[in-house]
Amino acid sequence: MRAIGKLTLWSITLLLLFSSCQNDINQSEKVVLDETLGELSLENQDERSLAYLNSLLDEQGDRTAQNYYQRARIFLAQEQYQRSMEDIQKAIDKSPNEGKFYFVLGKLQYQKGLYKKAFEAIQKSEAFGYRHPDNFTIEGVGTYEEGNHELALTFLKQSDILHDNDSVTYLYLGLIYQEQNDTTQAMPMFRRAAQFKSLEAQAYGNMQLTYNSLRQPYKSLSLLENLDEQTRNNSEVICLQTAKALEMIGRRDSANVWYGKVLKLNPGQWDAQEKLGEYYYQRRDMEVAAEIYANAIKTNPEKALPYFKLGVIQEFYKANIDSAQSLFIKAAKRDTLDSSIQMAVRRIDKKVSRRNYFRDNPEALVRYRARQKAKQDSIQKAQQATQVVTEEE
């Protein structure tokens, strides 16, 4: 079960980019601009180096592949990803057989979430003889996000060997072992990843998920003691897993507080929507329940349940059978096997048909109401007679 949302992937991406950029810049590869600047290490780039490259490329017309490559690396380190992409593409156009150019391209595509293209770029960099430890990290994370977890495991194991202490590698190895139900290997990886502040929340959240899956909610909750309040309250995965652990031990009201925190962080989180919607539905707080289900329809339109629940609210609490019919039909399209939904469709169809018939035949409606009144009067008389007999006895 994946517990990394879009925001988490973004933070991991930034971390990997910065770490890989730093690793890429080593003592054996320095930027030699000219004799006046001498050797300029990218680890200490400043405006002077960028200004000099701008002068070479834009003013002096020295538009070599190497100059575009060096400026692309600077832009990458400065998080100017679009400008970096433009320069590295120009470098590749001028010199299409340089492996290090494709390495930078791969990192940029990875940053954009284009994992398949990033993988292909890294493969090209290796084909042209460029080897770097971060190749395995990018390939591992990229193939994981593409759904090939078996191949990802191979790359990430190699990344773990080549890196002394790489947080992203630890986290993704933990995720793969977690999916394999291998908790003995997953938990140590998450603990290692948790040592890095940037991945602390994701790592602890996944440790909680593991304990919850093992039906050990108290261990899950005990992990919160290691986190500060800001980390606890601003991590979707921690809030969600804390809510689930509290629900396991019967603390439903407390769980709802944490489900509410989840929706503040991610209004479209389905698990929290489902739990809170059902909670307020059971409490007959239909206004709140309806609001939750309406939002669920917007953010998770493929789910049948919110259409069905909102349809019930419209039918019985809002007396809006047209709206209810529309909602039930949409629910039935999304889940053709749920018997409750199918029964609701048949029921509401009968109500709408009867309403339409009486609307077109007002005299029939008068007769129907008269029969209903006579039936009700008969029931009341029977109840009164029963009550008299009971009192006499």
TrEMBL record:
Signal peptide feature range: 1-23
Pfam family, one: TPR_16
UniProt keyword annotations, A-Z: Repeat, Signal, TPR repeat
Ranges occupied by TPR repeats: 65-98, 167-200, 270-303
Protein name per its UniProtKB record: Tfp pilus assembly protein PilF
Organism: Sediminitomix flava
